[in-house]
Automatic annotation (TrEMBL), chains A, B:
InterPro entries xref list: Flavin_OxRdtase_Frp (IPR016446), Nitroreductase (IPR029479), Nitroreductase-like (IPR000415)
Pfam families with a match to the protein in the record: Nitroreductase (PF00881)
E.C. number: 1.5.1.38
Protein name, UniProt field: Oxygen-insensitive NADPH nitroreductase
Keyword Oxidoreductase included in the entry's annotation: yes
Keywords: Flavoprotein, FMN, NADP, Oxidoreductase
Gene Ontology terms for molecular function: FMN reductase (NADPH) activity
Primary enzyme class: oxidoreductase
Record has Oxidoreductase as a keyword: yes
Residue stretches making up the Nitroreductase domain: 8-165
The family this protein is said to belong to: Belongs to the flavin oxidoreductase frp family.
Length: 249, 249
């Protein structure tokens, strides 16, 4: 196993960091790594916002549901799907790009571009001995996030990323059985096969929680996920995205 | 610079591969790395399909617009946003998860989850001396792709990834200036600043193409992107996604 694969397989979300701040050089290396990711047709449809202002960070903690590590970390990034510069490009080149950049296809492209860049950033950070945690919680109130960060139309903040030196060891969470995620030549549609894989995984997850909590928790994965999905959250999202002039047609 | 960052920064898309096939072990390592990526609230909303059947591969070449390296590679992966298993989980646990999994929020989650996994796969492959190329071209005709791979509702094939041993060196494409992608505390909305960064980048890209083509090409980035965005493609996407019962509310 090489160093890269070791770094990737060793990933765990870190939720407690020391006070040590990232250097400018570290931040630049992480962003350069993000930019090195593939981008659909060279479109580079994302932006990254580094948040250093304590007042903004405090508000982001509130927005994200009180997660202290949104404020207390070595650096905080926000990754955005971004087609704003493409509107500008249309103006610069005197072409009508609006129907395209308002399409569901380009909304998907921008999301994917931003996520590819973010994962490069995550791996780069982890290779430096830093820990990371994705913060989907910023999507709780994107109107507020947009005001705070002066986000223009055609830009959608997707998630934050807390980065810093880990102050607390966390455990690696077991993933779904490989054969449940990975299919060959056609999608596995036999529900019996899927169910038995999920039951097997439920055992694994149950043991994982029992060991971590001295027997206090023994959730299954399907139980946990069903609990979560029963309650709809962020139900304003479609409206927000459309107000940002994306995903319209 | 450590090995991981070196691998990440050295990325370039590879479009010509030797005939050497990936071993089962390599494929499993790549998928395990994909699975190690972060996933929103542990939801694991993606699947990966490995395509080895030559007949299916040939049809994917057609669908993607005749790119030979969709067929000629060491292995071909397709990454899918996947909320199908979550519908099954709802049934297993007797909970109504449908409104949630049909939301724009969860559509975004599934896209981001799949992309994070894919980028881990890409970096893992590159660390083994393999080259990769993302194939957005499969989105040209997702109805056909879905038929070929027996994709159920609530699953969307997002992109392919050709992986294999590089048969031809390719050049690294320069990215947007870091300060154009990376903002601090607030989004840079001064159009003059953005335009001058884009003009600077146009110079870089022009020189890049001139050098690569012995002066035959000298496109600017904004020119190239405006050309592309002027023509709307994959205009069926919104309808397809909704037919797959995602992004509905």
């Amino acid at each position: 196993m090489n160093k890269v694969i070791e770094t990737i397989l060793n990933h765990r979300s870190v939720r407690k960091f020391t006070n040590e701040q990232l250097t400018e050089e570290q931040i630049h290396t992480i962003v350069a790594c993000a930019q090195a990711a593939s981008t659909s047709s060279f479109v580079q449809a994302y932006s990254i916002i580094g948040v250093t202002d304590q007042e903004i960070k405090k508000q982001l903690v509130e927005i994200s549901g009180g997660q202290a590590y949104v404020e207390e970390n070595g650096h905080f990034f926000i990754f955005c799907a971004d087609l704003y510069r493409h509107e500008l490009i249309g103006k610069m080149e005197n072409r009508n790009v609006i129907p395209t950049i308002e399409s569901t296809e380009k909304f998907m492209v921008a999301l994917i571009d931003a996520a590819l860049a973010a994962q490069n950033a995550a791996i780069a950070a982890e290779s430096m001995g830093l820990g990371i945690c994705y913060i989907g919680g910023i999507r709780n109130y994107l109107e507020e996030v947009s005001k705070l960060l002066k986000i223009p139309k055609r830009v959608i903040p997707l998630f934050g990323m807390s980065v810093g030196y880990p102050a607390k060891e966390t455990a690696k969470k077991p993933r779904l059985p490989l054969e449940h995620i990975y299919h060959t030549n056609e999608y596995e549609r036999d529900i019996k096969v899927s169910e038995s894989q999920l039951q097997e995984y439920n055992q694994t997850i149950s043991v994982y929680y029992k060991e971590r909590t001295n027997g206090k928790r023994s959730d299954t994965w399907t139980g946990q996920i069903a609990n979560m999905l029963e309650k709809s959250t962020r139900t304003y999202m479609k409206e927000y995205v459309e107000k940002q002039k994306m995903n319209l047609r």
